[in-house]
Amino acid sequence: MPKIIILEDPLSAEEHNDLGVAYEKKGMLDLAEKEYKRAVKKKKNWDISYFNLGNIYFKKKDYKKAKEYYKKAIKINPKNTDAMNNLAYLYSLEGKYSKALRLIKRAISIRFKTEYLDTLKEIEEKIYKSEGY
User: Whole-prediction pTM value?
Assistant: First the structure.
């Protein structure tokens, strides 16, 4: 039986990313992770795949890796407010409230989304609780 040999990956970074999104929606996180990593290999300076990898690691509760990928997304695109929002939330989980607050306020100043206000409110509530209110 003849073997099929593929010398080059026929999918673009965007197509791998879209496939990752489809897997992620179905809860197939390991397959989504593989596709996002393939997208990153194809297009190293595209923040979306890094952001999506951050989300995968967040869902897997690997917060260290999630932070790493959110930071990479922001480094590539300093206006990636969704990555800022998610990273701010992770900082708040670690008790790094001033970092979280600065980051979410920065995200809101760049782009207003109701979800960002929810994150801001949660961070502020954690600050008040930590100060004994």
Answer: 0.89
Residue-wise pLDDT for 60-72, tens only, equals 999 999 999 999 9
Q: Are 37 and 50 in contact (CB under 8 A)?
A: no
CATH value at residue 58: 1.25.40.10
- Give the range of the structural domain holding residue 107, as residue numbers without chain letter: 79-133
DSSP class of residue 3?
P
Q: Could you give the C-alpha distances from 128 to 3, 41, 53, 111, 124, in angstroms and in order?
A: 64, 43, 32, 26, 6
**What is the phi/psi pair of residue 10, to 5°?**
-80, -15
The count of domains in the chain is: 2
4 part of a folded domain? no
